[in-house]
Amino acid sequence: MSAIFHYLREIWRSSSLKKKILFTLIILIIYRLLVVIPIPFANIDLIMSKLSAQDIGWLATFFAMFGWTLQKFSIIAVWLIPYINASIIIQLLTAVVPSLEELQEQWEVWQIQIQRYIRFLTVPLAFLQAIWMTYFINFIFGWNLIQTSLTTVLLTAFVMTVWTIFLMWLGELITEKWISNGISIIIFASIVAGIVGKLWAYILWAGSQIVAILLFIIVVVLSLIVLSILLIKTVKEIPIVYARHGKIEETAVLPIPLNPVGMIPIIFAMAFISFPYMISQFILKANIQSLKGIAEWISQNLNIYSQTPSVIAILIYFILIVLFTYFYTYIVFSPEKIAESIQKRWWYIPGIRPGEETAKYLSNVLAHLCFWGWLWLGFIGIYTYILGYLPVVKDAIYSLWTLPVIVSGAGIIIIVGVVKEIIDKINAEILMDRYDRI
Fold first, then answer.
1. How far apart are CA 184 and CA 415, in angstroms?
2. Collapsing DSSP states into helix, strand and coil, what is residue 244?
3. Beta strands in 89-167 (DSSP E)
4. DSSP code of residue 179
5. What span, in angstroms and rounded, lies between the C-alpha atoms of 360 and 341?
6. Is residue 24 within 8 Å of 185, Cβ to Cβ?
7. Of 192, 200, 190, 148, which Cα lies nearest the Cα of 36?
8. Which of the residues 69, 166, 317, 321 could staple to 378 if both were Cys, CB 3.0 to 4.6 A apart?
9. Rounded CA separation 11/429 (Å)
10. Could you tell me where the DSSP H helices lie in 234-288?
């Protein structure tokens, strides 16, 4: 405890750090206020009435994907999804577009230019997503949430797009203050807000079972935190030898993380498995007889929003996470490009020839090391669904109408990653402040 108080005193003594933390908290307060401001014309009472015990299970899963901004059909209901998608698209294009690949070698210029591309791409993505979301959420609530006239839909999409751009700007303001990546901080705040809301709901509903449920939640969350820390912190260091000052050779390391892509594969996998289910719901609602049989099968077997999805849905979701992790890892961490970069600088890995042999060696190391990372990430993605098949947990679901888990696996990865980044930045700031006082 004394070490914790000493650490807090160090933070308090740093005037610049206090200002940065205070500024970040003010931005987060503004963000949380935007969450509760509804879109004009929307029937918010309808949403609130649907958030009853028997409906909150699958709605909670869907709402959590958008930072709980859909709970009141907020003006930022599109949330940061367009920004995240734009970032992923630009990163993928960098691997296939030669001009972007060349620009990436100029790191400082690339950082400025990539942010510009992401901002420009976020705007049309936000507008299109807002239109889709208006129709889809309206469909969920029986076409009674908001009018679907062209004027109303376009106006709603315009409002959500403008406020999404404003939210993106708030995230960039936090980033400029150097505490941490602003977008990650906003996502982190949304996850924490969702955790607090779920805990309060369990306290209200659980009754005499609250102690057992809280113990269950603590065990699950602590296990996932340990697993996520191992996933984020595990790194294999490959020695690199390079010449310096003539013939003097020095050694550096090339770190290869167990999971170099974070939770992006989970986002991809969720999007791919969700799409056919959403299409099936439209088909069933429209009563298209020729496609009704296929739509019913998809609705029964690929509903990933259910508390206990089918084994087929869980298996497909797991496979998609593993495949996307493999695919995205080799784009982000290309062995051929790294081997080429090592050879251009006249560096080499001891015992390995530069060029093709280095690329083959790095590819083998990446495949061997990240195999376990892919499996871990896949397990973290599906753990809530696996819990739903345990007999004791099933009893809790039937009594509470929801799975007693307060955060998803992707949420845990984000929390651990953001907390680690914040602590590292704060430690660096404290160290600089100490030097200034000497």
1. 9
2. strand
3. none
4. S
5. 14
6. yes
7. 190
8. 321
9. 9
10. 264-286
Would you state the torsion angle of the CA atoms of residues 431, 435, 436, 438, taken in this order, to the nearest 10 degrees? 140
Please state, in angstroms and rounded to a whole number, the distance separating the CA atoms of residues 305 and 140: 13
Q: List all residues 6 or more positions away from 298 whose beta carbon is below 8 Å from its beta carbon.
A: 276, 277, 279, 280
> Residue 376 CB: number of other CB atoms within 10 A?
20
pLDDT in tens, the chain (438 residues): 677 777 777 777 777 788 888 888 899 999 988 888 888 777 777 666 665 544 444 555 566 666 566 667 788 888 888 888 888 888 778 777 777 777 766 666 767 788 888 889 999 999 998 888 888 777 767 677 777 778 888 888 898 899 989 999 998 888 887 666 888 888 888 888 888 877 777 777 766 677 777 787 788 888 888 888 888 888 888 888 876 555 556 677 788 888 777 777 887 788 788 788 878 877 877 778 888 888 888 888 888 777 678 889 889 989 888 888 888 887 777 788 788 877 777 777 888 888 888 888 888 888 877 778 878 888 888 887 887 777 766 666 555 555 667 777 778 888 888 888 888 888 877 777 776 666
81 contacts 66 by C-beta, under 8 angstroms? yes
In DSSP terms, which residues pair with 243 in a beta bridge?
249
CB count, 10 Å around CB of 84? 17
Q: What would the two tokens of residue 272 be?
A: 């791919």
Rg (the chain; Cα; Å): 24
By CB atoms closer than 10 A (0-12, 13-18, 19+), residue 1 is exposed
What is the pTM assigned to this prediction?
0.80
Which residue in 168, 74, 83 sits closest to 121, CA to CA? 83
Bridge partners, residue 255, by sequence: 237
* CA–CA gap between residue 194 and residue 66 (Å, rounded): 11
Q: Which residues contact 195 (CB under 8 A, 6 or more apart)?
A: 406, 407, 411
**One-letter amino acid for residue 12 of the chain:** W
Angstrom distance (rounded) from CA 350 to CA 348: 6
